[in-house]
Each structure stands twice: as structure tokens, then as C-alpha cells.
Amino acid sequence: MARLHTYTAWPPGSSAESARFSARRYAAECGDLALQFDAAPRALLVTALLARCLRAADTRPLTAQALWQWSVAERLQGLLAVALATTGPNTTAVASCGHAGCGQSIELELELASFAAPHTVHSASGVAPDGSALLCRLPTGDDQRAWREFADSDTAQTTEAGERWLAQRLVERVADAPPTQDWSLPTAWLESIAALLDASDPLNALVVGIECPYCGGHNNIDVDLEQLLIEGLRRQQRSLIEQVHRLACIYHWSEAQIVGLPPWRRARYLAQVEAHFS
Ligand SMILES: [Zn+2]
Q: Does an H or E element contain 67, and which?
């Protein structure tokens, strides 16, 4: 029997009309255990997680094909929604203090809801170094996938070649007209385009400022939010597999039966196992 899930709207607190999509808890059904966190490329993992746990505002399921077409920024919003539904309102990043003679480990408590973008952004406009108006679309999951293929191919000699290839793909209009077929992106524009995209997707290169509690020094810490959220979900999968193992050893129930139990009942059985067999 299909499990009924509770879906939480994103952005948090949004109404049925204003919600962009909603998410259920990950590691709540057997199929969730099929995700190979160590083997899959990150973009593929994000698509698989979102396809399992998100649904559209009109409650229809979202296909992997549709999710590949979402911008990287929107995919991160989706991952935030899944993390919120799975692991609760906060996540913790750990970094080392960069001040000489300190190097202590600092914990950053991050509130997931604080990263909710109010609306979906598809493109960014700015000015090229030669003064031309510039319109770029934000990179999508498909771009990430294509970029990876390009980077693995023989044509990609340098990192700059890869960046240039991606940037050219993203430019939609130059001086209010679509670029011509033979137009080639000037290398000098790369920096402007990178800055334009960063400004439109501030979470992509997130930097959090914090005072070190040990030495009092100020640190600007780069936070890879996507990686942090994936790690949290990976831990949930590992924990569920451990629970299945412990209960299967004692009660000889199937994986599907154990995963199908509501978490509170699973916790009660595990407490019984703990009390009687340890
Ligand atoms: Zn310090």
C-alpha cells in the first residue's frame, strides 16, 4: 500500500496560493534507500532526491525531466524544503578558525528557513565591460550535466575554457538582441557574467561571517549549502538502514515492513530492543 506522506509548503509559512512546491520527509519509504549517495554525481543525486520528495504546488508529482530544467538556485530551494521536512529547522556547518595560532573548530548554526528565496528567478541582467546591456539565464540542472560532460571531454583544455563554454551558453541577449550564431563570448566578459550570476543566486557562493568563540577573531566562512544538506540526508538514510538492521535481526520483519512503520513506533520497538537485548 502506498504510504501517505505529510507535505510541507515551501517557502515556509506560505499559503496554498503562494507556495512554490511542497516537500515530504526523506528516508520515509523503501525507495528512498535506493539512492546511492557515494556513487552518484551530485547533480544526479539532487534530481533524484527532489523527484522523490517534492511535489508541485498543485500536488502533482515533479518528474526528473522537469527538475533538470529547474535553475540550480531553484533546485537548492527544493533541497532546503526536503531538508526542512526531514531533519528540522536547522543545520550545522563546521569550519576551522583561520586565525594564526587558533585553528579551533567553529560550529555555525544555520536556519534553513532563512535561505528561502521569496520567488523564482530565471535570469539576470547587467552591463557587459563594453557597455552593452546583457541578459543571462541562470544555469539549470541540465547545464550542470552538460558542463560536466564538456569538462570530461577532450575539448575542455582548461577551467577557463569550461567557464567560457558555460557562460556563452547562458547569454540570452547582448545589446537587446539574441547573440548571432557565430558570436563568441569575449574572455574579458567572464568576470562580469560570473558576478552577475552570483548576485542573482547568492546561496551558490554563500559566505557566512562569524566571530570565533575561542580567539574572538572574525572569520568569513564559505558554506557549501548543497553539500551540507545532502550530508544531512545521507545521515538519515544511514540511520534508517541501521534501524532496519536492528529490528530485522530481532523481529525478522522485512525491510518494507520496518520502513513502513511510523517513526514513533519504530522508535518504541528500538527502545524495547535496547532495554531487553543490550
Ligand atoms: Zn579562533
A: helix 64-68
How many angstroms separate the CA atoms of 71 and 92, rounded?
25
CA of 223 to the centre of ligand 1 (A): 17
Three-class secondary structure of residue 153 per DSSP: coil
Amino acid at 135: L
In the reported structure, the alpha carbon of residue 99 is separated from the centroid of ligand 1 by a whole-number distance in angstroms of 6
Cα–ligand 1 centroid distance for 105 (angstroms): 8
Domain boundaries, the chain: 8-97+224-244, 123-200
Q: What is the pLDDT along the chain (278 residues), one digit of tens a residue?
A: 456 789 999 999 998 788 999 999 999 999 999 999 998 899 999 999 999 999 999 999 999 999 999 999 999 999 999 999 999 999 999 999 999 899 999 999 999 999 999 888 999 999 999 999 999 999 999 999 999 888 888 765 677 888 889 999 999 999 999 999 899 999 999 999 999 999 999 898 899 999 999 999 999 999 999 999 999 999 999 999 999 999 999 999 999 999 999 889 999 999 999 998 87
Compute, in angstroms, the gap from residue 75 CA to the centroid of ligand 1.
34
- Total Cβ atoms within 10 A of residue 31: 11
